[in-house]
Structures are given as C-alpha cells and as structure tokens.
Write a structure and sequence with these properties.
The protein is built from ten helices and no strands.
Length: 249
Amino acid sequence: MTLKELYSKNKFISKILKDNQVILKKDLKIGLSSKKTWKTKISTKERFVIETFYFITEVLVKLETIDYYLAFLNSYPKTKLWEKTFSRTDYLRYHTESYLNSIIGTFDRSLLLINHLYDLGFKNKDVKYHFIINNKHIKDRKIGKLLRLFNKTLKGVRKSRNFIQHEGRFFDEGLDEAGKYEFIFRHGIKLTGKEKKLYKFVFDLKIRIYLSGKKKEIKENNKKLIKIINIFFDILFDQYVDQLKKFSK
C-alpha cells in the first residue's frame, strides 16, 4: 500500500477529515460574517474531533517525511559549493538517520493517538509503550495485539536509532565501502588528476549499485509500515465512532 492509497481508502482518515471540515466550515461562516473578533465557541464533541484530527495528522506527517527519503536518495545537489562542503556519503547518512528517527516518531505518535482515543489519561510527555501496552483497556484487545506486532517490527530500527543517538554515526557496509573512494578523491594526498578521476569513477559506480538496492529496500519497508498504519487506523476507527456516540447521549 502506498501513502496515496492510504489517504484515499482508509475510512478513519476519511471520517476525521469530513468531521473536521464541518467544524472548519462553521468556523469560517461565523468568522467571515462577524464584525467583531473572530472567536468561535466549540462544543466538547467538536473539541474531541479537533484533537483527534491533530493526533492523526501528526502520525500522517511523520509518514510523509518517511516517504520523502526516496527523494533525498536521488537529490544530492551537484554544485561546486555543495560538493566542496558536503560529501555525498555524509549527505545520505544524514538523511538515513533522519529516516530512522521518523519511523520511530511514527510509532511514538501512534501511542499518543491511542492515549487520546481510549482516554487513558496519560500526559503527552508520559506516554510510553510499556505504559500503553500494559493498560487494562489495551493489552487484551485488537489494538494491543497490533501494537505489540508494530513494536516488534521496529526492533532493528530502534537498535540502529539508539546506536546513532548514544554511540556513533549510522553504519551501512555498502555506503561505507563507497565512501572510502569518495574520501580519497576529496582529501587524498598528492593525487594526480587522472587518479582523482579513477577514484571518483569507482565511487560513482559503487554508489549507483548501493542506491539501486537501497531504493528497493526502502520502498518495501515503507509499504509494510503504511500497511500496519492502515490496519491500525481501521481498528481505531471503531473506537473513534464509539467515542462520538457518547457525546450524543
């Protein structure tokens, strides 16, 4: 599943967009017709819809940044100033580290959405996986089972992200192999023009091979992540509808 398909087919996204648009239209109508300060009163139900919209869009924004990574793999600016200042391997490493952070960020924001929809009562800064998964309203339900699967899927990503944050830079054998040749043609001692061209040729070849495999890997990873989020939203849709019904009683 692609991000575009998620937006067009997921019923929770469609529902929250429609509900929020109703509120915004009302807000615009009142604001545009009022000669006084634009200040619209909202009901408790409307506030719940707005807050749900906020939490779900935070998840979606993180998903979009994950999708951007493929563009960054192809977008190294080939200008003399840029090439002189930033190596391509460091550019790719930086965006890969951001990519890993965004994946974990998607999971963390999903926890915030669960906390909100199930009214668990945790302050946003206190929302942690172990608190959510062990909550009596979550652990034995469908959402709890999916959350455990989601967390297990991210085990490797979390390990790499934690290493980057606490120990060192992102390690990738293919990228590092290509990077050796880039470092030499950029900083090598007393290289002839012919030698520089040779090192650059080998680097360009290795980085093309690396990127070809990396793109396929990322596309598959993104599809799997979006598929999990789609199922996640489908489960949360029922909870959202149930919560809306409480405001009608």
